[in-house]
Amino acid sequence: MERPIRTYLGGDALLTALGYGTEANYRAIEAGCCGLRPDAVSSGLAAAGRIDPALMRSLAIEGYTLLESAMIRCAEAAAAETGTELAAEECALIVSTTKGNVELLRTAVDVPAEAYLYTLAERVARRLGIRRRPTVICNACISGVAALIVARRMIRNGDCRHVLVVGGDLLTEFVAEGFLSFKSVSPGPCRPYDAAPEHGLSLGEAVGALLLTADPSKAKRPAVVLEGGAVTNDANHISGPSRTGDGLHYAIEQALTEARIPREMLSFANAHGTGTAYNDAMESKALARSGLSELPMNSLKGYIGHTLGASGVVESILAAEELRRGLCFGTAGFSRAGTPCPLGVAAAHRPLTMRHALKTASGFGGCNAAIVLGLEPHVPTEQASETEYEAREVACYQLPQSDKPFAEHIRTLYKALEAPNMKFYKMDDLSKAGYLAAEYLLRGQNLTERYRPAEIAVVLENRSSSLDTDLAHQRIVNEHHAEGTSPAIFVYTLPNVVAGEICIRHRIQGENAFFIDDALDTAEGYARRLIARGTARAVICGRCEYFAGRHDVRFTLLEKS
Amino acid sequence: MEQIIRELKEQIVEALNLEEISPEEIDAEAPLFGDGLGLDSIDALEIILILEKNYGIRLENTAEAKPHFYSVKSLAEYIVANRQK
Fold it and tell me: What ipTM score was computed for the predicted complex, to two decimals?
């Protein structure tokens, strides 16, 4: 029988508004420092967690963008900490980012190659000497946590011994204007879970690198294990958090089940805690439904801001340090409880006896993610063998090509469906294409009658992410900055929102994953693995590409045999 | 007032991509959100943008402004009372 493989947390490194290095960040938070300041670049941001520009420049590598440079520096530091050879055949790279080098679109006439997320990842991988093709996850604000879950599965599956997860997003005008249009930016430093009448998030920027490894000798001490994780969808709304918290609740339950940890064994939770009223209320409901209202918990957004695609990596690194050092950080900005359900949140740091920690994240597109981290002596022995299920292809649909303009073509296909949806014309072209392909794929399948919502997953990939809509949003930012940008466009500058649209339409609440891959060969293999391991019983998977009037959409429905 | 209602209907149809609805089909007194036109929170933000761009109305407190977003008519009344341009 095959020996079960544990996933250890190896070396790590961070770059945030509080400085460079995990130790520097830990010490700053321990001392109660707040990295949120009035923003010098974007006047609309009363408080933002911007990385010190001089520090950022000092890390720059010639020939690389600032984001790529910071990713490379953090990756090298993380690998060096526990002496891991990145050039080894057994090391893979996962990049977690929502917008990558989107700043390049601001001044570019043509789209530069580095604006493509996969190109960014390839450049970072090559510089690091990593020979395998990188994996890119672009799943809104859960990207970082989702990347850790994907990394754990790669290790458990025996694909590789080590996975370097690098998360990074910078605070660009693109992102700032988008969140301002959503009226979700706090008028001061954010105040997660607080009763203050003025709610909202504080944007931040960060890069984090965390090495996951099957090799216990490469674990950072005291050893912390990534014990399990899950991703779900609310199937409720593309930007508004669930009003019931059910999606996040399911993610927590599945993560605990995979980790085989009873909830009573959790020592604390590091939640998403953006500071927006809807997010914080949703989290309080989800934790209550999971029986965790009294669990000590915190949000780190009041120290470093919401760092988007980096947040899951950065906050998991810090949560692991809290476990190792026996200290649950206080929540900066919190003073009086303001959530509909009680939470074990506190302003002050609390020393705790540590065993296991829960880390959660939620994001646009209705996605949620949860992982369980455990200090080694408390980690249960992993189950030796898992039953492997076969996946079979049940249906396949390719969105037809046409000589007509895309708008006309897609309208014809939509009309032919005879299934009106008020939301259809509000979608961007990528979402319209994916939505219609899913409609045609699932016609007559009675999928949601045969499976529970949580048993169905959506796994998609493409080459250009949401670049087409990114250009539209950037154009508005450049030309109509003073008048404000359109929230209805900005929300689609995340490719996983198409998965969210499909989930809402078909009431699908299982895993969502969106990969960016030049070779377009990640999604189906990943989907088959979800079925093989029993994570999903049915998966809609495939490519969903749209850019500049051209589409390439091909979905497959896989089901457990 | 009639003029503003007509304008507003056209602006809403355009900004919210209500492709299959003509401005005339919108009942000025019917609820915009929930049942009625089935608008959601993103649409509400787009309407806020219409108020800012076209009528110079800046909403400081969106929660307080909520009753004015009930229908096209209530929005038109709010615009008449508060417009800056």
Answer: 0.89
